[in-house]
Amino acid sequence: MPKSKRNRPVTLSKTKKKPGSERKGKVVDDIKKAVDQYSSAYVFTYDNMRNQKLKDLREQLKSSSRIFLAGKKVMQIALGRSPADEAKTGLHKLSKFLQGDSGLFFTNLPRDEVERLFREFEEHDFARTGKAAQTLRLLGIQMATFRLYLVCRWSCDDFEVYKEGLAHLGADDDSC
């Protein structure tokens, strides 16, 4: 008997698929609203992400800022990948820096306050399985450091790229 005629088990349970495009569209809309609502945007990277530590930071900055961690392609689409489809002038430059473990930080805080905040933010926690821990030890247990690093900054009047915490490109530089 051919395979097409054989008895095959039929599942009777129906599962609802997650509406991926609707969820992604909501993130895109939220990022576009944040572009209009906040005066500047930063791309940041992170090491040894801890969900609770990030929640604490979000709660601390709730009144003046917004942090987005989503798929890189989704965030790039929201910002615009080229000057033709960007939400505001110069935003497409940020999308080029969304690589690896990165996120978007929208804020109304002054630039020096944000730089200080990111420079000082460092949390120690237990190292995860399979991850190399830093040299910090607490009672003989290796600890990991959760850090945030600024990559670049955008505001309506300029764009900067950070290298090891220092801004080294201005708005007139087209190397981005």
UniProtKB/TrEMBL annotation:
Biased composition (Basic residues): 1-18
Any one GO CC term of the record: preribosome, large subunit precursor
Xref: Pfam families: Ribosomal_L10 (PF00466)
Start and end residues of each stretch annotated as Disordered: 1-27
Spans through the membrane: none
GO molecular function terms noted in the UniProt entry: RNA binding
InterPro entries tied to this protein: Ribosomal_uL10, Ribosomal_uL10-like_sf, Ribosome_Assembly_uL10
Domain of life: Eukaryota
GO biological process: nuclear-transcribed mRNA catabolic process; ribosomal large subunit biogenesis; rRNA processing
Entry's family note: Belongs to the universal ribosomal protein uL10 family.
Designated name of the protein: Ribosome assembly factor mrt4
Organism: Panicum virgatum
